[in-house]
Amino acid sequence: MPSFVTYPKINYTVIKKLGEGSYGDVSLVTLSDNQMYAMKRVKRTERVWYKDINMEYTIQRYLTEDGGHPNLTTIHKRSDLRDGALFFMDYVEGGCLFDRIPEYGFSLRTCHRLFQQLISGLSYMHENGVVHMDIKPENLLVSSGGTLKIADFGSASFFRDECDDEEMVKGHKGTRSYAAPEVLTEDRVEGPPADIWSSGIVLFFMATGNQPWTEANRLKDKEYEKWILAKWKKCQNGVELEPRIYDLIRRILRADFTERAKLEDIKSHEWFITFPEEDSDDSDDDDTDTESDATECSTVDDVKESESSSQNSKGKKRENKDYVEEKEEDSNVKKRKVEESDD
């Protein structure tokens, strides 16, 4: 007989909706302690089963126990519903990275600082045997103090078994425009190289304000074909990449995952380890360069005071909503499970 673990009802007050998608929605709520939380409602559907909900919760709890990592969001509570579950997580007042990227990209200094944090968070995940499989600006939050946090672990998987041996993970996950070529075509893939590819797309987007292509498929996307043939010169918005950042991105965005830069290669790259000089256009960046998280909202009063300053829409269209994710049961999760239930 399967064992059932249920999580009790939690009373909350909704302040406002933060976002929604095919998985459900995210709302800003307060609990009895008057603290602010981002409440993610995960719906059970034909493609999202309870085992998927349990996996997401298990992975995020596993990654954030014992203090977690500053570049990962923390999950605090869970409540089960008849048709899904509620996850209560850190509320990151600054919002998602996508909404903060300027039309022609960040300055090199801001790209450098945010990308270092992204790689730090990914390194922690991979060291602990977890791959994200849906790294993109919408799943990266930036606090009011400029700290980047990886969020939304709905596509994440363990890629090491109980003997610490690496295993392949399911392909066809994530978001098409950020997915590595092998993720789009293969049923099982090496997880870490797929995350690294997606991080390269994010770096490209931060540096230029444009996604490089809609799909890493030479037959379907001319921009990607130019990149593969080393004929790419500049973005459609006219932005060119600075030589050193271009060199790093080329090392990351290699179609053959065996030739793709690894995390240690990225960390030792000249652009990554050398802090860029201040650009003349640094003043055009938003408040991602602030030094402290002291202004991060945590109570109802805090968010009321800051809400008027957070209306900073860029007017960009989100063009990367073509999901390729298909869920299936992963039997590789053994000793790492924090809490689990079966439907």
TrEMBL record:
Q: Which SMART domains match?
A: S_TKc
Locate the transmembrane regions by residue number: none
Q: Per the record, what is one GO cellular component?
A: cytoplasm
Residue ranges, annotated region (Disordered): 274-343
Composition bias (Basic and acidic residues) maps to 319-343
The molecular function terms in GO held by this entry are: ATP binding; protein serine/threonine kinase activity
Q: Name one GO biological process term.
A: intracellular signal transduction
Q: Which PANTHER family match?
A: MAP/MICROTUBULE AFFINITY-REGULATING KINASE, MATERNAL EMBRYONIC LEUCINE ZIPPER KINASE
- Name by which UniProt lists this protein: Protein kinase domain-containing protein
Origin species? Caenorhabditis remanei
